[in-house]
Amino acid sequence: MMTFERFEDLAAAYGGEIARWPEGEREAARALLAAEPARLSPVLTEAAGLDRLLDLAPAQRPDAALLGRLIAAAPQPANTARRWIAGLGAALGLSAAAFAGVSVGVMVGGQAQPAPAAVAQAETVTAVDFTADLQDALEEPAAL
Amino acid sequence: MATDGNDPDEALLAGVGRGEASAVRTLLDRRLPRILALSRRLLNDPGEAEDVAQETFLRAWKQARAWKPGAARFDTWLHRVALNLCYDRLRRRRETPTDQPPEQVDPGPAPDAGLLASDLSQRVEAALAALPDRQREAIVLCHHQGLGNIEAAAVMAISVEALEGLLGRGRRALKASLADLRGED
Fold it and tell me: Which CATH class name applies to B1-101?
């Protein structure tokens, strides 16, 4: 049963639009308003004044950079993921071959030339770490 | 809170889980502005709000493949995650002593009576920011985010009665601090 006091409490909590009040109480509130408009219309008008002021507080639109980051981090189709992994696998194979070639060349030359091998190895390690990260990211995009 | 099979985001989320670009875009168009607005109003800091929105959706992407339809509405889940991330940041702010208090607009009346629309919105924003956190959360969830009372109470993990109390106290405080504007709206 809707009372004047409950009607006022609802307006004070949810504002001047009965459509935004708890669903189960709207019909009774509308019936009471229809029966007592002179008493209850000012209650709604008063609450609606604050509603209009609240609507002035600005929202923020998402910028393109944020959208771009979220789209890039979203899950990928399974076949795209497989293509990525296959492509990276091929690239890693080439890196490993290059590393082996450089090492053999250094040994055959019989000279102590650690720098190129060290660089090639470091690059290979970096590529492996990246692949592991990417595979994690494809499984769990938030890892990006 | 169960969805009774009426979650408008359920099909989209399944598409996100399958890696469909169109589902990702539609879901972001539909939900990102709301989550950004929620974080912005609760934190009153655009940069932090963007971080929270980003983290919320990264968690959503992680959930997309494992989402169980019917357990909760996705929008409610998103609000809950974003709200928790906002809580963490608000708590850290309270715990971190700083020489420079966050910049806040004086919620009191401006010296000149004729206010521009931007001044008005700044006043309202400042009055909202000056409310106790829980009152502000209740008003933002119900008024700005348009959540129903049961949904908002679930997101805040409180009873509907407690939510109503927070809404009533928050709106009374806003009415008092914005009393000089009531004739201009």
Answer: mainly alpha
